[in-house]
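Researcher: Re-running this chain for the archive, since the previous output was lost when a drive failed. Same request as before.
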Amino acid sequence: MQIKRTTSPADFKQCALMMSKSEPWITLRRTFADSLKNLQDPLKEVYTAVENEKIIAFMILQMVGTFKGYVQSIYVEPGHRSSGIGTVMMRFAEERIFKETPNVFICVSSFNKKARKLYRKLRYTKVGELKDFVVNGHSEILLRKTLGPLSKFHKKPSEICQGDEQSKSSSRREI
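Model: Regenerated structure tokens:
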């Protein structure tokens, strides 16, 4: 399996279709158009996990703004769930995010029990609950994994100068 950053319109369309036909996005009423718009946002980083030339997982990272280091979405093909791919994707996200900020944030739907179990295993802690945030009757639970407060986080001088180049070179990884 190879994880790589993508900006391909064809990949975006494929990912939007996968997302719009799968839980939890069906319950959250995320349409193909909504998903595609989100994937095409130039402020987002989209990474795909490819096996045998087929996308089997992807994630969307937000690396700007107040919640810099936010894993906005993570998707694993239903036939590949519970096989460790979600863990590999989250570890990849953490490696990417911790180069620039000491916090990783993710929201998980209250009804998504398997994802909640995974994030507990990965040592994420609950920061808060957003009741009826996306749809009535379900909460989004905000989780955080941290290396410490922003005020104590410092990039090495070499990372400050090379930050952009490092994120480009780390955006492709063989697993």
